[in-house]
């Protein structure tokens, strides 16, 4: 996969030299280039920002350097999908990571300050698909940290980037549930034991225990995920655990158990 990242702080992206992503770059699985947006300015101060039209706080990224930078991606036949980190983008999910991992070419435009002049999005959309995305409902100082997160989430799904492909299947969010708790040796540590079923060697019981823990943990930490679970994909045991956590099937959804109305 080819990835191009544009930023006024290219050094912010140096963690992409490390660990499995760094290795994927060195072995050629990932062809990732970080570009300095200021290389697409032509004034002595390499200016990338200006005052907001209409007034207000902060500065806005100027359209000209962005247009020139993004036009370099539209020279040949092939086009990348342009991902723009922004707190007003579509929430980034594992499903999006899976979708992006199938593409040949991604580009990222890291905004800073109060954001990028809106006309850049319109211009870019005439050249390539554009997808603003958000990491979550909070505000970062710029898009670089969001790009680190998305590149890691996507690149680890490219075949060959992670040695143990099996570990990709049993993960939080792969099937709408959070991951089960994990333990290692020693069997007893500071008077706390590893749940005995995990030491039993009984694989069916271990699988069942793990599934129960995933359901309980998801119900407690992320009730929104239980609310979109399809009862069709659950068995009797699942439904008993969910009932214990206060959820009952209602048609094609689960809903919080409704107390019978007292009269
Ligand atoms: N840039 C600033 N805040 C952001 C967020 N929450 N997600 C993605 N990019 C951002």
Structure description:
This protein has a five-stranded parallel beta sheet with strand order 2-1-6-5-7. The longest helix is centred in the last third of the chain and has 19 residues. The chain contains eight helices and eleven strands. The chain is elongated, with a radius of gyration of 24 Å. Helix content is 30%, strand content 19%. The protein has 263 residues and is an alpha/beta fold. The model has no long low-confidence stretch (mean pLDDT 96).
Brief summary:
Helix 2 packs parallel to helix 4 and helix 6 runs parallel beside helix 8.
Strand order of the largest sheet: 2-1-6-5-7
Number of continuous helical runs: 8
The whole-angstrom Rg is 24 Å
Helix content: 25-40%
Oligomer: single chain
Shape: elongated
Bound ligands, each once: adenine
Q: How are helices and strands ordered from N to C?
A: EHEEEHEHEHEHEEHHHEE
Strand tally: 11
Termini gap: 64 Å
Mean pLDDT: 96
Detail the poorly predicted runs: none
Strand count, sense and closure of the main sheet?
5 strands, parallel
User: Which structural class do you get from the secondary structure elements?
Assistant: alpha/beta
Strand content: 15-25%
Output the keywords.
8 helices; two-stranded antiparallel ribbon; binds adenine; 19% strand; 263 residues; S-adenosyl-L-methionine; alpha/beta; five-stranded parallel beta sheet; 30% helix
């Amino acid at each position: 996969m080819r990835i191009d990242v544009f930023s006024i702080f290219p050094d912010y992206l140096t963690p992409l030299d490390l660990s499995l992503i760094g290795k994927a770059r060195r072995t050629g699985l990932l062809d990732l280039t970080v570009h300095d947006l200021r290389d697409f300015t032509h004034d002595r101060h390499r200016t990338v920002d200006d005052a907001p039209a209409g007034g207000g706080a902060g500065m806005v990224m100027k359209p000209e350097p962005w247009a020139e930078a993004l036009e370099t991606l539209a020279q040949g036949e092939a086009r990348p999908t342009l991902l723009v980190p922004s707190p007003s983008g579509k929430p980034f999910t594992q499903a999006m990571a899976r979708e992006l991992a199938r593409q040949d070419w991604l580009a990222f435009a890291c905004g800073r300050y109060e954001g990028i002049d809106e006309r850049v999005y319109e211009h870019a959309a005439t050249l390539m698909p554009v997808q603003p995305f958000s990491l979550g409902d909070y505000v970062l100082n710029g898009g670089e940290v969001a790009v680190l997160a998305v590149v890691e989430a996507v690149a680890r799904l490219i075949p060959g980037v992670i040695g143990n492909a099996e570990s990709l299947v049993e993960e939080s969010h792969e099937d709408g549930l959070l991951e089960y708790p994990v333990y290692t040796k020693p069997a007893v540590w500071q008077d706390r034991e590893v749940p005995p079923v995990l030491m039993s060697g009984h694989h069916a019981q271990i699988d069942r225990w793990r599934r129960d823990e995933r359901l309980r943990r998801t119900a407690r930490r992320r009730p929104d995920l239980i609310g979109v679970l399809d009862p069709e994909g659950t068995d009797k045991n699942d439904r008993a655990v969910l009932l214990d956590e206060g959820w009952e099937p209602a048609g094609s959804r689960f809903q919080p158990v409704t107390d019978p109305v007292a009269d």
